[in-house]
Amino acid sequence: MPKNKGDKGGNPNPVRTSRVVEMVYGRTEKDPYPDVPLTKKLQIWMYAPIVERLNQMSQTERTLWLRKAITDAAIMDLGVRLD
Questions:
Q1: What are the helix (H) ranges across 1-83?
Q2: What is the pLDDT of residues 16-75, one digit of tens each?
Q3: Beta strands in the chain (DSSP E)
Q4: What's the CA gap between 71 and 75, in Å, rounded?
Q5: Domain contains 25
Q6: Which of 2, 27, 54, 63 could form a disulfide with 31 if both were Cys (CB 3.0 to 4.6 A apart)?
């Protein structure tokens, strides 16, 4: 049951600081665009064979691969520039 303002316990308005977000969804030395800010988490439905293969990767490896695949597609197909 969700808590309302004034209820005892819990935080009805939790906020993740940028430091916490960077620790949870941080970058690694393999990040090809370290100076470009990360702004939004995407959630999409994927085809089962792709998900099965992605689940064989570690969380860090999967995140880097997905970020790279989406970024490369946006650069090639949408003409996005990351400078």
A1: 18-24, 48-54, 59-78
A2: 777 776 666 666 677 778 788 777 778 889 999 999 999 999 988 898 899 889 999 999
A3: none
A4: 6
A5: yes
A6: 27
